[in-house]
Amino acid sequence: MTERFCQTDVLAVPRFANIATFMRAAQSPISPGLDIAIAGVPFDLGTAFRIGSRFGPAAVREQSRHVRLIHSVLKISPFDLCRIADVGDAPVRSFSIPDSLALIESFFRSITDIGAAPLAIGGDHTITLPILRAIVRGGPVALVHIDAHSDTLDKIQNERLCNGTPFRRAVEEGLLDPKRCVQVGIRETLFASDDHDWAKASGITMIFMDEFNTRPLSDVVAQIRTIVGRSDAYLSLDIDSLDPSFAPGTGAVEPGGFTVREVQQLLIGLLGIRFIGADLPEVSPLYDEGGRTARVAASLAFDQLCLLAYGRPKGRAEVGT
Amino acid sequence: MTERFCQTDVLAVPRFANIATFMRAAQSPISPGLDIAIAGVPFDLGTAFRIGSRFGPAAVREQSRHVRLIHSVLKISPFDLCRIADVGDAPVRSFSIPDSLALIESFFRSITDIGAAPLAIGGDHTITLPILRAIVRGGPVALVHIDAHSDTLDKIQNERLCNGTPFRRAVEEGLLDPKRCVQVGIRETLFASDDHDWAKASGITMIFMDEFNTRPLSDVVAQIRTIVGRSDAYLSLDIDSLDPSFAPGTGAVEPGGFTVREVQQLLIGLLGIRFIGADLPEVSPLYDEGGRTARVAASLAFDQLCLLAYGRPKGRAEVGT
Amino acid sequence: MTERFCQTDVLAVPRFANIATFMRAAQSPISPGLDIAIAGVPFDLGTAFRIGSRFGPAAVREQSRHVRLIHSVLKISPFDLCRIADVGDAPVRSFSIPDSLALIESFFRSITDIGAAPLAIGGDHTITLPILRAIVRGGPVALVHIDAHSDTLDKIQNERLCNGTPFRRAVEEGLLDPKRCVQVGIRETLFASDDHDWAKASGITMIFMDEFNTRPLSDVVAQIRTIVGRSDAYLSLDIDSLDPSFAPGTGAVEPGGFTVREVQQLLIGLLGIRFIGADLPEVSPLYDEGGRTARVAASLAFDQLCLLAYGRPKGRAEVGT
Amino acid sequence: MTERFCQTDVLAVPRFANIATFMRAAQSPISPGLDIAIAGVPFDLGTAFRIGSRFGPAAVREQSRHVRLIHSVLKISPFDLCRIADVGDAPVRSFSIPDSLALIESFFRSITDIGAAPLAIGGDHTITLPILRAIVRGGPVALVHIDAHSDTLDKIQNERLCNGTPFRRAVEEGLLDPKRCVQVGIRETLFASDDHDWAKASGITMIFMDEFNTRPLSDVVAQIRTIVGRSDAYLSLDIDSLDPSFAPGTGAVEPGGFTVREVQQLLIGLLGIRFIGADLPEVSPLYDEGGRTARVAASLAFDQLCLLAYGRPKGRAEVGT
Amino acid sequence: MTERFCQTDVLAVPRFANIATFMRAAQSPISPGLDIAIAGVPFDLGTAFRIGSRFGPAAVREQSRHVRLIHSVLKISPFDLCRIADVGDAPVRSFSIPDSLALIESFFRSITDIGAAPLAIGGDHTITLPILRAIVRGGPVALVHIDAHSDTLDKIQNERLCNGTPFRRAVEEGLLDPKRCVQVGIRETLFASDDHDWAKASGITMIFMDEFNTRPLSDVVAQIRTIVGRSDAYLSLDIDSLDPSFAPGTGAVEPGGFTVREVQQLLIGLLGIRFIGADLPEVSPLYDEGGRTARVAASLAFDQLCLLAYGRPKGRAEVGT
Amino acid sequence: MTERFCQTDVLAVPRFANIATFMRAAQSPISPGLDIAIAGVPFDLGTAFRIGSRFGPAAVREQSRHVRLIHSVLKISPFDLCRIADVGDAPVRSFSIPDSLALIESFFRSITDIGAAPLAIGGDHTITLPILRAIVRGGPVALVHIDAHSDTLDKIQNERLCNGTPFRRAVEEGLLDPKRCVQVGIRETLFASDDHDWAKASGITMIFMDEFNTRPLSDVVAQIRTIVGRSDAYLSLDIDSLDPSFAPGTGAVEPGGFTVREVQQLLIGLLGIRFIGADLPEVSPLYDEGGRTARVAASLAFDQLCLLAYGRPKGRAEVGT
Questions:
Q1: Chains B and E share 3 or more Cβ pairs within 8 Å
Q2: Which of E95, E156, E287 has the CB atom closest to F157's CB atom?
Q3: Closest chain B C-alpha to D285 CA, distance in angstroms
């Protein structure tokens, strides 16, 4: 592994120094040899109410100065397993949803083209759609979706491409196989009594927070693993799945969410699933308190990075460390 | 149901738009036909230490823009069950406790006079006393009181009408039947060793946080339902019952409180109790962080609204929706 | 004058109480008899960088609780001179610039239709364009524009309808007469060396902050009055004309701006100009500090209200106070 | 001078260490030998709208860690001139205006009884009344009053003892000679057109901000000195005299106020007036930004301390430094 | 017990009044007769990344105004059991680690010399080392260490005396017996795979958060008590053991920590252990939100005070209450 | 000029996107061909009281997203005149003043070695000393120093290398010629009456704020230019020269400072002086409000960049624009 893909030495260099990248990964353009590309997606035009997640990638980069090198529980050291870089932000436009989605899709397509898996930091949840369009190539994939919201509405204010609809669009477009999709933590109050009808009818498994309260966490993990099976899968972790006390910095806060420890345990439970990509959307620094939400996002994104790194054996072989 | 009592259409109208009312309910004066009147009570002169809950109603109105229409778990749609309006704030005076309490009592009396049930957003906890004086008409009622504090002191600094005393006064005045009163979540450090003696002697059931830690939540719910029975009851939910990590914006913060999920489950467990009114006091925006506490209060007030709406069958019949 | 158009009595009713309206004006739909309609315009999709002024109207309403009844220097009491109401927010859409601009234009057209003058609280500066489209009826009008930015670019990221372009569009559409337009306080760093060429060529008078530093304020006032003359005129006061120390809560902060006292003196100097409408855009609460910017905006909007009220003799006559 | 009255050595001891007192003065009970007693007055029940200045003394103590020993311009070293101590807070009650005012008066009477001059840190502006009642002994004194508000209303919501009335009460009670009273910086919008009539009729000189804008500062200083003459005088400096950009942490913010440099120059200009006491009210930390207002208050209180110390020659003689 | 060591009467005196001390204890120099000395240690030069805990003692003093007199669960009233005082801050230097550590050690030595037990409020975790050097006199003691980090590295950036190393140094210096040391709550991501090797090899018992998630809390308490046995023991409670949602105001935030209720239950479970001293380091107000972390720290420090007071029978005997 | 040294196109790329560099300059290692190297210096161990400016460079980078390309008044486009890059942060150590100063000096020496001029963003004011040690090569240079503090003490708490002493050290070491040094804006209260004696005796010209209040700004500019003459000069602009209302985010706040407009005018007045380097220290984000101080710093640093770029004709020639 060349020095270029190494993380800054966190004991020798003070963590307050230098330009922040995601988890202090090396900066690199998208180029052959990368196993995992961490990218920002500063897009939030799909937000109907509390806009601002365009500032999410910058905030998560800054707070990821905290993250060290090795996972506390899994003992995985992703930078030793894989060649990982911060490839910067996907291009977007300030005024156009369709232009931005096309640019995002194209950017992630180039990541897939070089054989790397993406870890995307949002931006609002609309971004999952262009990412899936870019990276899903051999038929629909499975989904692990941790969120307060199902995001399977048909439209909001007549807009079909927004943060309330990406998973419906992705199923419609054959990118996700609803039978292998599972949503965990749903607890949103409803706009209308049929908000969840489509998702249920499609075959998506929804595990509501109310149900989660009454089941052992290990049981939920087992159910997720059964649903996903040995398929290629995508991991979408909305920061608003957490209770606002842990993650106030997000647009659509829903009191009554997961603790960080619960999400950490869920993620640990996913080790070994064949993830082809992951995202962490909806960090919105304008509503944050002292960078606290971005700090949690950085920590959970590191967990996602470990899951991605663990599942990419070729990268490990090539590195030969 | 006339359009006047309808909530703004939350999918068609952006939630950041228009003047905020409680849960986007229609504004209305107190007038016949209302089933539930949501009112602010911007009174905080009963606060010995960290004053400021006078700004609570405005903050909760603003944050209740988030709330949608249908309860996540109960699937209750209160605006379909009942005629509900935001009737504005009870009148108060800036310099006088007794004048303010008289004005508040009179305001809530007019709500009861038209046959509506009140949902009051505080203001400090003193407000429960004038509300009970206004709405209790056929003998003492039962009480479900979720709080970090018992609020049954005799006086603070010689003041008998303050936020540390309302439940003692209400029992003394025959508004509450202590045998049917239950307090959940008490965890305050004590001024003196006899702080809770009167409450215990009166027959009020106190479930301390220390005890709550060791019992299943469903067991506590069952006990509450047994104590309250089929009586008319009042529901008082102090925001400081929550741990400060969930609700920092309050005067008398007591570390070690409920999670939002616990309070949500407690409230769900109360469905079917015959509540004649409810309040949510002690939201204090000056100590809040980005409106986060007011956001939680809006969410829990919506839960209270569902409990009130469910228990008012006449309203449902008349509406005929 | 009916009670309906009166401002709440600020000495008898505590200012923290009740639902906030602009300067505690009565709420009213747009209806005949109004002289001045104060309206929120929660539109910010024209913002390329720091979005968020959609929350401006709500914040200014809340902070305008501070404003009393009579101007400190002019001794004008606008609520005694005119029938004034808070007519709520113009309708907007969360995802569409053109749909929103059409809705805003239609809303302000209805204000002009009843013979009232609008005072619009933004929202981003794009809103001036649909307002001018709605209210300019007998040929181009004059403009007093106080701002850090000229807002006469042709486009930003290919978008011709955004907050960097409204005055160029308005001149192009014949709504403004550039010879009678004056911009005061311009101090923006430039994207390109020709940023101001169009404005200068069009005949708009630009008074840069650098020039303002060296001239007596009274001299600037005299020049503005000469340029505007006795024409009908529009008054657009961008909150970012103020130095960020006075108004941090805005998107495009430019250090080195006006003091509040300077803007107050400029506004006082405009008394008697025949204003047909006014706006105060770019208040962005997400960047504010404790509502401070919204507080200043409320104060300056009251000054604008005095200028509008003073210039509407018919209203005064009819009121007969 | 005993060590007990010395300020902590600011170069040897880090200023973040130890319990904060006003300007790191020694703590002392009120006892003979003191020349100047700095006292907190945590009373804010006289506040009709934005309460919270009860927390002012604690915040100013904390921020006065910044202040060093010698005035930047005057080169006065008050701790070398006089025996100065932080005598703690005046006693107050949480629920009663009259009880609190009586306790405050008694506390300051004991300061006068030992021959010391008080410097009082508020608390709301009501406190000036009991202080004057305590310390004015040989007939009415002169007043230099720097404020955004005249505070000479008769009552607010029927309350005659509140922060809008102290100077009216003090004149009525013969504590102040209105002919030798001057108010500088008044800029409040008015509740009613006669708000200032009583003050003007009484003979108090009011210098409005609008007038201040057009006069040299030195001219204003000269006028103040002429009005006060060689009388004993009291100095009341309301923190809201400053523009909110300098002092956001106060209840009744009025945009368009003094800069800090202007108030510093005004205070320097008062050197030599025979001040018998001074106060600095209305610091309200709940509205402050990072202690910034309390920091300014600490700085200006140090300036007041220099003025008091300079005018107390006996202390100087005894010290014999 | 003389009045001097009494806590301010919290019902009679408003808690916002007077100069703040730790839990409103009397201020006192270190002098014979004290049973417990509460001291601030404003040292943070041992912090590699997010410095600022030098401001911790001041913040905890301020927030400890909230604490009342008697423990909610244990019903212990420490001020009745022991003579307790706030002895001020240990002296430190702004620029030198060794000079500061020597001064701290000397300060705590004087506390031990008079027979009192210290309760130290940090300051960063380096402070535990000089405290142990001062108070451990008859051979190594046991340790209960609640923390997100093991703090047993050899050095950071070549510095052997910093907040990542104190427990390694203390074991090396014979101050702690590693076999009787237990660390609870460790969850840090690792700098290197051998970060914990020394601690494990030394015999220190480490209970990781991952393990804690799967065990009953009572079981963990029992294990701690077995490890500590009847030895003299020291109690070190790092505020970052709490999840950042409860305690954001600290330097090295690690998402996924204890709830306050868990730490409260752990502390209650330690009643009866023979603690010779205790500390609560790493409160860093610059990262706090409205004093919330300092509030929690004050509450937990009161719990520590109860444990210390309960275990000092001589003090109890002498007091004779 | 290769694309590598170009600034991101600010109209085409949203300014919220991508990793922030100083003024969106290209990132580059220190390498031949650079004319101006912008560097962060995250060192704050020279701070006796309110530490935290180690986070300054990151904050200024983030806020410099705002800055566009061409100076508002001077019309200088520095990126067209010179090859400019963000060269990252100087290396520092978390625990050692001397090690850090040596590393900083070495880093800036490499900048001078390639013939580039440095623009350094602090970090505390200590950093000026190692920078001067690195870049002053042909005898002492002149100094323009804008600051609230003289920073010419001999030591603080026995430390001779801290932020209160750099200019004394630099004169002692023959790096600065005191006769050609001018300090503007000094207004600090004094630790001792002789604080400024050394500076005055050395021949440094000190222009105090009190004097500045009474002189035309243009007159001060002329005096500065006379003192500096045609020498090589260094420009040190302490952010605390500004009033805290403009720049609250700094350690040693001194109420009563410059407005931003004054400093902007001072800087414009310096055009043509032969600056060999410049710095902007003491931005301390932990005390900032929403990045506001860092925003001002970014703006003033851009002004400094224009001054540096204008004075480097060789760079201009080579570029061949």
A1: yes
A2: E95
A3: 10
Tell me the percentage of chain D whose pLDDT exceeds 70: 95
Is A180:A229 a contact under the CB 8 Å cutoff? yes
Contact between residue C30 and residue C48 where contact means Cβ atoms under 8 Å apart: no
Structure tokens at C145: 């524009």
Do A234 and A277 contact (CB within 8 A), yes or no?
yes
What pLDDT is attached to residue D303?
98
Contact B45 D286 (CB under 8 A): no
Three-state SS for E203? coil
By the 8 A CB rule, do B257 and B185 touch?
yes
Q: How far apart are CA F88 and CA F29, in angstroms?
A: 8
Across C137-286, where does the E strand assignment appear? 141-146, 176-186, 205-208, 232-237, 274-280
DSSP string, B235-300: EEE-GGGB-TTT---SSS--SS-B-HHHHHHHHHHTTT-EEEEEEE----GGG-STTHHHHHHHHH
Neighbours of chain A (3+ CB pairs under 8 A): B, C, E, F
**In Å, how far is B286's CA from the nearest CA of chain E?**
9
Cβ pair D243:C261 closer than 8 A: yes
**In terms of residues, how long is chain F?**
321
What is each CA distance from B262 to B244, B267, C207, E214, E266, in whole angstroms? 14, 9, 61, 20, 21
Under a CB-based contact definition with an 8 Å cutoff, are residues F131 and F120 in contact?
yes
Distance of CA E56 to the CA centre of its chain: 12
Sequence-distant (6+) residues with CB within 8 A of E117 are E35, E36, E37, E111, E135, E275, E276, E277, E278, E308, E312
Nearest chain E alpha carbon to D65: E58
User: Which residues share a beta bridge with B121?
Assistant: B40, B280
> What's the token pair of residue F2?
């290769």
In this prediction, residues D38-53 reach a mean pLDDT of 97
Q: How far apart are CA E296 and CA B49, in angstroms?
A: 17
DSSP SS3 for D233: strand
Q: Mean per-residue pLDDT for C123-151?
A: 97
| Model confidence, pTM | 0.96
> Which residues of F are less than 8 Å from E49 in CB distance?
94
Closest to F289 measured CA to CA, from C56, D252, C287: C287
Return the DSSP state at A255.
Answer: S
| Nearest of C134, C112, C127 to residue C35 by alpha carbon | C112
The band of C311, judged by pLDDT with boundaries at 50, 70 and 90, is confident
Report how far Cα B206 is from the mean position of its chain's Cα atoms.
Answer: 18
Cβ burial B31-53 (10 Å sphere, 16+ → b, else e): eebbbbbbbbbbbbbbbbbbbbb
Residue D182, classed as helix, strand or coil, is: strand
The residue in chain F having the minimum alpha-carbon distance to the alpha carbon of residue E155 is F95
Question: Would strands F117-122 and F36-41 be described as parallel, antiparallel, or unpaired?
Answer: parallel
Does residue C137 carry a pLDDT above 50? yes
Alpha helices in F179-241 (DSSP H): 197-202, 209-212, 217-228
Neighbours of chain C (3+ CB pairs under 8 A): A, B, D, F
* Interchain proximity D17–E62, CB inside 8 Å: no
Residue of F nearest to A40 (CA): F18
- Taking only Cα atoms into account, the Rg of chain D, rounded to an integer number of angstroms, comes to 18
Residues of F in contact with E163 (CB under 8 A): none
Judge if ipTM > 0.85: yes
Interchain contact D/A (3 or more Cβ pairs less than 8 Å) = no
Residue A13, C-beta contacts closer than 8 angstroms, at least 6 positions apart: F91
Q: What is the CA radius of gyration of chain C?
A: 18
Q: Please judge whether D95 and B49 are an interchain contact, meaning their C-beta atoms are less than 8 angstroms apart.
A: no
For chain C, the farthest-separated pair of C-alpha atoms sits apart, in whole angstroms, at 57
